[in-house]
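Sanity check. The docking grid for adenosine-5'-triphosphate depends on where the pocket ends up, so I'm generating a full predicted complex first rather than guessing from homology. Inputs follow.
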Amino acid sequence: MDVKLQAIRGMNDLLAGELPYWQRIEAAARELFADYGYREMRVPLVEHAELFKRSIGENTDIVEKEMYSFDDRGGDRLSLRPEATAGLVRAAIEHGLLHNQRQRLWTAGPMFRHERPQQGRYRQFHQIDCEAFGYPGPDIDAEVIQISARLWRKLGLGGLSLSVNSLGTPESRLRYRAVLVEYFDARREALDADSRRRLDSNPLRILDSKNPDLREVIAGAPRLLDHLDDESRRHFERFLELLSASGIAAQVEPALVRGLDYYTRTVFEWRTTALGAQDAVCSGGRYDGLVEQLGGEPTPAIGWALGIERIVALMQVAGVTAAEPAPAVYLVLSGAGAELAGLALAERVRDALPGQGVLANMEGGSFKAQLKRADKSGASVALIVGDDEVARGVAAVKWLRTGAAQQEWTWDELPQRLAAALDMHKDSGTNDGR
Ligand code: ATP
Ligand code: MG
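Predicted complex below; grid placement will be based on this.
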């Protein structure tokens, strides 16, 4: 029996028609990071499994059940990266990027998590990632959030809400952990199996449970914010002031703990109500201990990651359009002589119209069929070249989107006149071909 080859579940093909959304997001992000002085960096998709275990944490959902790990032919235990921070930190240490230096960095690309595929949740998904190393104060916390807020504006997205919290230092968190365990231990019968297990391994994660039956017992739990050390409290208060001075509204959410172990102090999440259950669009926080934990010098750090798929979905729901650009020119080539001369002529036209799209007709076809293709391509103008035009060194110029009369230009004047006419077309939205 023939087995039809199909993509792996949860790993999507991104077809050309959908790509304009992606390109718009990526272009906006690239421009934005330049505006704020963040430099792009790229790291491998595959790392030693150990890196993620030591950074994200053994008792997290990602490491416990979502990682794609395998032994390679040399016997090394490797993983497809489930997020970008660990690899960036590893690389920054390895290349000495943090020796007496601060770094503002960003990266983007595919991440892999073995989750149950559903709307907005995939096994290969894509993130844009922003990280700053060497800045201990709350000002950078506000800046990285400013970047994300500006991205939403740039993309025309409204209705996103920002939740923030502070996880304190590892020491204050440990003290809080004891208080929390005591609270939940006395209410074991109200917990589900998952949370009972977490009571020993990672009790803060109980606060993160999505089980509605636990809502009440979680709401009554002692709050981490009430157990912060003084320094973390000052940091958090200043951070809130800076956000508010930047005109960014934020909701303090004491149960926001995030699913990775490496966070300290500031954590945050942008959410939407427009996408159903998969409501997290962008999340991050401070991870002051991670660089040292992975063998580098103590270096404060903060970052966020956004899921591109969810931003695309948001743009579509919000009716933000991202159109595929239509070509400017379609070259109709009718007859053997025209076909022979046509490709060279197309090159001359492209020289004059960089980035605007010049489609040459391929494989002949009747004049009428070619004009139909020209129309369907969305081109503004058809250049019609038959054997007679080749002999005279001219092309008929037919504006496809206006009622302008057909003209005839010589090949020599064609590139310049076309460039000028298309430029005018762009400004006025009409074109009379002169
Ligand atoms: P969630 O609560 O939805 O599982 P998360 O807390 O695991 O999200 P992070 O690890 O913080 O997510 O990743 C940052 C962003 O990446 C998320 O806010 C989300 O937009 C996106 N993301 C995470 N996992 C997936 C996935 N499996 N498919 C698509 N996007 C994802
Ligand atoms: Mg998750």
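Relevant for the grid: The chain has a mean pLDDT of 94.
Also worth noting: The pocket of adenosine-5'-triphosphate (ligand 1) is lined by residues 83, 113, 115, 121-122, 125, 127, 259, 278, 280-283, 305-307, 309-310 (CB under 6 Å).
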